[in-house]
């Protein structure tokens, strides 16, 4: 009888552990990044197409690696120039936010629905600036702040914000990221 109870208890614990793991792999009922975008008044554009020999993103297992994107408007105009010289920190912040919107457009095109995003894992933010500029984090906050607005706690991520002597087409920022998905 004791052995039978041990076996029953073992299977009960195993069942509960499995159920717990299954629940952890599904988003909560109130998790809805698409509704957050709508509430923020953000309409995602068509994803920007690669400008060279690469793809917008690659999925490996449950991770998506998004290629770097910049602050390009839907009409093709870009925010260009060196932050701290031609572009203010505030304009750089807005450029990083615009870049976040472009990256979300790519992510949605890959996933079909942003509710499949489990977590924003890692962000690399590059700022076009000269060597005396040291406010890169303030600029890339435009990207990070929007990720948290859209995904809540799941939008908090590891990050590097670095300065670059130049970026493609003179764009003010370029940002790449890694995303974990369901």
Give an account of the 3D structure.
The chain has helices at about 1-25, 35-40, 90-110, 135-150; strands at about 55-60, 65-70, 115-130, 160-165, 175-180. It is built from four helices and five strands, in the order ααββαβαββ. Strands 1-2-5-3-4 form a five-stranded mixed beta sheet, covered by helices on one side. With about 180 residues, it is an alpha+beta fold.
- What form results from the Cα inertia axes? globular
Please provide the count of β strands. Answer: 5
The overall pLDDT, averaged over residues, is 89
The percentage of residues in β strands lies in: 15-25%
Strand order of the largest sheet: 1-2-5-3-4
In helices, the fraction of residues equals 25-40%
């Amino acid at each position: 009888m004791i052995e039978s109870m041990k076996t029953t208890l073992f299977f009960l614990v195993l069942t509960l552990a499995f159920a717990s793991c299954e629940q952890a792999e599904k988003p909560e009922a109130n998790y809805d990044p698409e509704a957050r975008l709508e509430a923020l008044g953000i309409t995602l554009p068509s994803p920007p197409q690669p400008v060279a020999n690469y793809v917008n993103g690659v999925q490996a297992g449950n991770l998506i690696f998004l290629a770097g994107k910049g602050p390009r408007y839907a009409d093709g105009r870009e925010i260009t120039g060196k932050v701290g010289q031609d572009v203010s920190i505030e304009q750089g912040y807005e450029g990083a936010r615009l870049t976040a919107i472009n990256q979300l457009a790519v992510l949605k095109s890959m996933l079909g629905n942003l509710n499949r995003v489990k977590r924003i894992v890692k962000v690399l933010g590059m700022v076009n600036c000269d060597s005396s500029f040291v406010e890169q984090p303030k600029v890339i906050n435009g990207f990070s702040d929007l990720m948290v607005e859209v995904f809540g706690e799941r939008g908090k991520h590891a990050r590097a914000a670095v300065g670059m002597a130049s970026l493609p087409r003179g764009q003010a920022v370029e940002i790449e990221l890694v995303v974990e998905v369901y």
